[in-house]
């Protein structure tokens, strides 16, 4: 195995990288997500109104995620670790990066295969692909809930993620519109003079074309191309 390059690569990924493994993107044009209204299933208010509906929705998503397989983009990013110090920061709640072989994955919005106490999100249990039902309790006696960040909740990993981006020698953004804050603001923490790449079929209007290098492709085709280019360029 070649000796690792010491350059730090930070990769920020969104729904577009999971979509090619068959998982629905976060929000559709009609404001529905797998037929559910986002306000009903992805907000703290929705949980308070109808916890069973929220649990049913995430049980379905957990089952779908368990059946999905990592795609070429996930595997290409794992290959990058042979040559660089790679940190994945993902907005996705699936574990496709880990199953694709990446070692350092930070989940901004939580993880589907975990549950937590509805009273204390620090009480976390691994549940794999199992459903959470009403009456399933955490060790503090509270109802278990999905270990995800909903609208109306703080994003506890945003600060450590910001530090990681600030340390990057190369920044790669894959499959995200950079429209949802605070995650979208992470790119502003990167040094001005480092290479910045965006892989997505749609280039956001907000992106400075003098600063960013665009690969207007899906994650599954664009990511392996960029990984190959970086390995050749720096090794």
Quick summary:
With 235 residues, the chain is α/β, with parallel strands linked by helices. The protein has helices at residues 15-19, 38-41, 44-49, 51-67, 72-80, 96-99, 158-166, 219-234; strands spanning 8-13, 32-33, 36-37, 85-90, 105-107, 110-117, 124-126, 144-148, 170-174, 196-199, 212-215.
Question: Would you mind describing this structure in some detail?
Answer:
Helix 5 (72-80) runs parallel beside helix 8. Strand 4, helix 6 (96-99) and strand 5 form a beta-alpha-beta unit. The chain is built from eight helices and eleven strands. It has helices at 15-19, 38-41, 44-49, 51-67, 72-80, 96-99, 158-166, 219-234, and strands at 8-13, 32-33, 36-37, 85-90, 105-107, 110-117, 124-126, 144-148, 170-174, 196-199, 212-215. It has a six-stranded parallel sheet with strand order 5-4-1-9-10-11, with helices on both faces. With 235 residues, it is α/β, with parallel strands linked by helices.
Unreliable runs, pLDDT <50, ≥5 residues?
none
**What's the SSE pattern?**
EHEEHHHHEHEEEEHEEEH
How helical, in percent, are the residues? 25-40%
Pairing-aware structural class of the strands and helices? alpha/beta
Mean pLDDT: 90
Radius of gyration: 18 Å
User: Looking at the structure, what is the overall shape?
Assistant: elongated
What proportion of the residues form beta strands (DSSP E)? 15-25%
Structure summary, number of beta strands: 11
Total number of helices = 8
Sheet with most strands: strand arrangement? 5-4-1-9-10-11
**Largest sheet, described in full?**
6 strands, parallel
Termini separation: 12 Å
